[in-house]
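Reviewers of the previous submission asked for a worked example of the structure-prediction workflow described in the proposal, so we include one complete record here. The input consisted solely of the amino acid sequence. No template or homolog information was supplied to the procedure at any stage.
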Amino acid sequence: MFLLGTLVNGLLIIIGTLIGIRLTRIPEGMKVTVMYAIGLSVMVLGLQMGFKSENFIIVIISLVVGAVIGELLRLEDRLNDLGQWLERKIGSNGKGSISEGFVNATLIFVIGAMAIIGALNSGIRGDHDVLYTKSLIDGFTALILTTTLGIGVIFSTIPVVLYEGLIALFATQIDRFVPQELMDQFIAEMTAAGGIMIFAIGLNLTGIVKIKVANLLPGIVVTGLVVSLVYAYKTFIQ
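From that input alone, the workflow returned the following structure tokens.
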């Protein structure tokens, strides 16, 4: 079943959130320190991913063009609007803004190589190990995030399952028309671009600066286009 890893990922996010929402007696100072710890850890993870690039010019172009597209589409505002709509429908539980929890958790769980690589492995090879590993990390992260940001974290399950599920579905056919060399190049540059976005999330979580990370998301698609053009050019001149 090619969606098994995706479903496990969503389930552990829900479980982590439900456990975190019951941890009501954590002192405020501890919550702040824990959030800083998460933010710093996310920043280091982002840096590690960022160094995976084999051609950083591709990453720069992808992020710049992606940022322009994201700003024009107002992706960050639309995500916030969705979170605020959920908050109006459900109400706040006093721990934090549902909008903030939804947006931050969605960006953390969706952006990154593990989501794409794991979903590709699930679809192409029926291998769910990467998504199983990501599920454990996401479940623990959801628990910690929920203690500070509240129940909004649980709604990130929806975009995570849709995102990974669609990639896994597409991957069941991808090996028929995408050369392995091209796929490897895309994963390397996508990992780097996603790492920079994750680093930006860490900056947001620590309160150092406020970056509209969602507006950078089109950079992932642009990365695929640029890598494909570079690969096509190299193939043509050989």
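Residues 184 and 190 are 10 Å apart (CA to CA). We consider this example representative of the routine output the project will generate in years two and three.
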